[in-house]
Every structure is written in structure tokens, then in C-alpha cells.
Task: inverse folding
């Protein structure tokens, strides 16, 4: 069996005394598309930040491409798109081309000139995400959904093997959301990229993803989407919907 792209092993985490993750275990196989589901405050972003090395590991271990996180060096294999990414205002002085080029800085160095093959790579990525007509537009003129596409293109120029998206469609208008998900699916199928999509809304993604993980401090379910859907029919809310209900009451 191939080494999982991500392997989460008995991970627990607390902020001060507050436990937010308890004994989380799951693997993300190569070429899979995982939806990480959970209500607000369920620990999804915390788990992603632990995976990316943005928070210190307290208990357990996370392996990336077969290496313990602390020994992992090949960060250019990992693309990350956060919810906050689409926040450029209309005055932001950079074009789509320039923003996407930033994805190459790890490879060519910040102040080096882009060589022709770098520029071609940037144009190719912009075309992949369907923004060709906006190449020389200021990023701030684009809609939220288009900005998220530009960020995907920025990740793509470094040829990531794993793309992690934390609630990327927050602030994106509903009509663009489905297109955005279709783009993700295409990246998986055509580029073989392994994807982790964090979302609190399972509905639009069940027909796209291969695996589902339901998190609410603990991992309530992890497995194939088909098994998740079967669970849903057998009234998944007995353990998951109930938790959603409780969180609603705290806010
Ligand atoms: N930096 C922080 N310090 C203290 N508590 C935090 C911090 N970040 C998140 N939390 C809390 O941890 C819990 C999980 O947060 P988070 O991982 O962001 O959940 P999600 O992404 O599922 O909404 C929440 O109750 C949140 O308020
Ligand atoms: Mg979050």
C-alpha cells in the first residue's frame, strides 16, 4: 500500500486548558479528496494548522508524505488556501499575474526575474483556473470566487501534490461555489492532486469527494463518502447533528 499523504496519529490539542481535539486518527491516501466536516468551533482549522506546522504539536504526531512533521522539509509540495485569502480590496496594487507569480518565489527567489518558462507556468495556472481574461486585471477588481481561483493558481505554479483548503467558499457567491468545486475536482482528476477541503456545509460536496471526516473535538466518522451517505440515511444526526445543535445554542 502507498504511504498516505497525510497521517494523523492520536493527535490531541488544547488552547490553555481548553481541549479542542481529542485522540484524532486518520489517513489521507494519495489521490483522494477528503471533506473535513464539522460545525463552527469543532477544531477543523486547528487540525489544519497542526498539519501545516503553524501550531506546535502537543500530543500525537502528524506525518506528511511519510515524514514526521518536524522532519518534513518539502513544503512546496503543500498548497494552503485559507478562508481569509479573499480579502483584497479594489485598490490592492497587484495584477492576477503578479499574485500568481508569487507562488514561484519559493523556487526562484523573491527578487529574481521570472524566466520565460516561469512565465509560461504562471499563464498555464491562470488558464487552468479559468481566469485568462483577467490576467492583467488588478486582483481587487475580481469577485470573491475569482480571487479564490487566483489563489489556487498561485498554489499550482509550485506543482503541489497536496492542496488544503480551509472553508474557501466563505464569502463566495452561491452561483460561483459549484464552479469552484468543479475546479477542485478537475485538479484531482487531471493533475492527481490530493485534496483536503474543510467545510461546515456537506451538501454541495458529497458528490465530489472520495472520503469524509466528521470532526467535533473527536472524530465521529471517517471513511468513504458512500459509507458516509449510508450513515446519513441511518440518521447520522444521532451523533453529529446533535452536536451541531449544541454548538448553535452556545452562540
Ligand atoms: N488561538 C486560539 N486561542 C484560543 N482558542 C482558540 C484559538 N483558536 C481557536 N480557538 C478555539 O478552539 C476551538 C476550535 O477552533 P477552530 O479550530 O478554529 O474551529 P473550526 O475551524 O472548526 O471553526 C474554538 O472553540 C475556538 O474558539
Ligand atoms: Mg475554521
Result:
Amino acid at each position: 500500500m502507498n504511504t498516505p499523504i497525510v497521517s494523523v496519529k492520536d493527535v490531541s490539542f488544547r488552547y490553555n486548558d481548553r481541549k479542542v481535539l481529542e485522540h484524532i486518527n486518520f489517513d489521507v491516501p494519495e489521490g483522494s479528496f477528503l471533506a473535513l466536516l464539522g460545525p463552527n468551533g469543532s477544531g477543523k482549522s486547528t487540525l489544519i494548522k497542526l498539519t501545516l506546522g503553524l501550531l506546535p504539536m502537543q500530543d500525537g504526531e502528524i506525518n506528511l508524505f511519510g515524514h514526521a512533521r518536524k522532519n518534513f522539509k518539502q513544503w512546496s509540495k503543500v498548497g494552503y488556501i485559507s478562508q481569509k485569502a479573499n480579502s483584497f480590496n479594489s485598490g490592492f496594487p497587484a495584477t492576477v499575474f503578479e499574485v500568481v507569480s508569487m507562488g514561484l518565489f519559493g523556487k526562484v527567489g523573491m527578487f529574481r526575474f521570472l524566466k520565460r518558462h516561469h512565465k509560461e507556468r504562471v499563464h498555464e495556472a491562470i488558464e487552468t483556473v479559468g481566469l485568462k481574461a483577467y490576467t492583467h486585471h488588478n486582483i481587487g477588481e475580481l469577485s470573491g470566487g475569482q480571487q479564490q481561483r487566483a489563489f489556487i493558481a498561485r498554489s499550482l505554479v509550485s506543482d503541489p501534490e497536496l492542496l488544503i483548503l480551509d472553508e474557501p467558499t466563505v464569502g463566495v457567491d452561491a452561483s460561483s461555489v459549484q464552479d469552484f468545486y468543479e475546479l477542485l475536482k478537475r485538479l484531482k482528476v487531471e493533475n492527481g492532486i490530493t485534496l483536503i477541503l474543510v467545510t461546515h456545509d456537506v451538501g454541495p460536496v458529497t458528490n465530489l469527494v472520495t472520503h469524509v471526516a466528521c470532526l467535533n473535538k473527536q472524530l465521529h466518522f471517517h471513511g468513504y463518502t458512500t459509507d458516509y451517505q449510508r450513515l446519513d440515511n441511518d440518521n447520522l444526526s444521532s451523533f453529529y447533528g446533535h452536536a451541531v445543535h449544541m454548538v448553535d445554542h452556545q452562540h
Q: What stands out?
A: Residues 242-251 have pLDDT under 50 and may be disordered. Residues 166 and 198 are 5 Å apart (CA to CA).
